[in-house]
Specification:
The protein has 189 residues and is α+β, with helices and mostly antiparallel strands. 29% of the residues lie in helices and 16% in strands. The chain has six helices and seven strands, in the order H-E-E-H-E-E-H-E-H-E-E-H-H. The chain is globular. The chain binds tetrahydrodeoxyuridine (THU).
C-alpha cells in the first residue's frame, strides 16, 4: 500500500528549504504585534487639490511596515522568497497580502493576488499607493502578471515604491492593455 501523506501540511518545510540561508529576516517583534490600524488618512498636498489629481501624501513608512508584516506571514516554502505587499485604497483602507505557494509549483499565489482580494472583498475601490517588499524588507517590483492586476485596480496614476523610488504605474507597465481597450472595441461595434 502506498502511504498517503496526511493533510494539513501547511507550514511544512520541504527538504532543502533551510539550506539556502534565505529565511525571512523580518522583525519578529513587529510580526507578533500585528497592525494597529487598518486605515490611513490620505491628504492632498495642497488645499483644493483632490486625491485623483495624484497630488497626495502617502505614509510610505506605514505601508512598508505593513508589507513587511505580511512578508513575515508568507507561505513560501518552495521558493524561499517571501513577499509582502500593502496598499491604500482611495477611501483610506489599508489592504495587504502575502505570497502563498503550493506543491503544484505553477499555481502559487503572488502577494498582490491576496492584496487585490482583500481590496475587493473589503468593499472595492481603487488602489492609490502600493509597497511590495521581500523578506529583507526591501522594495521589489511586482512580476509582470501582477503589474496587470495592479493596473486593473489602480490604473496609470497609482503610486508604487520600487528599488528606484516611487513611480506611477504607467512607468512599470507602459502601453498597458486594459479595460479601455475592451470599451474601444465595444463602442466601435
Ligand atoms: N512573488 C510575489 O508574490 N509577487 C511578485 O510580484 C513577485 C514574485 C512571489 C511568487 C513566488 O511565491 C515568489 O515570490 C518567488 O518568485
Amino acid at each position: 500500500m502506498p502511504t498517503r501523506r496526511s493533510s494539513g501540511e501547511a507550514g511544512r518545510k520541504p527538504p532543502g528549504y533551510d539550506v539556502s540561508g534565505r529565511e525571512p529576516q523580518y522583525d519578529q517583534q513587529t510580526a507578533r504585534q500585528g497592525p494597529t490600524t487598518n486605515r490611513m488618512a490620505l491628504t492632498a498636498n495642497q488645499p483644493g487639490h483632490s486625491l485623483d489629481e495624484g497630488d497626495i501624501v502617502v505614509d510610505w513608512d506605514a505601508l512598508r511596515e505593513r508589507a513587511r508584516w505580511m512578508a513575515a506571514r508568507a507561505y513560501a516554502p518552495y521558493s524561499g522568497y517571501p513577499v509582502g505587499v500593502a496598499g491604500v485604497a482611495d477611501d483610506g483602507r489599508i489592504v495587504s497580502g502575502c505570497n502563498v505557494e503550493n506543491a503544484s509549483l505553477g499555481v502559487g499565489l503572488c502577494a498582490e493576488c491576496g492584496m487585490v482580494s482583500d481590496l475587493i472583498g473589503g468593499g472595492g475601490g481603487r488602489l492609490v499607493a502600493v509597497a511590495c517588499v521581500n523578506a529583507l524588507g526591501e522594495p521589489i517590483t511586482p512580476c509582470g502578471r501582477c503589474r496587470q492586476l495592479l493596473w486593473e485596480h489602480g490604473g496609470a496614476a497609482m503610486l508604487i515604491e520600487t528599488p528606484e523610488g516611487i513611480v506611477t504605474m504607467d512607468k512599470l507597465l507602459p502601453q498597458a492593455f486594459g479595460a479601455d481597450d475592451l470599451d474601444h472595441l465595444a463602442q466601435a461595434k
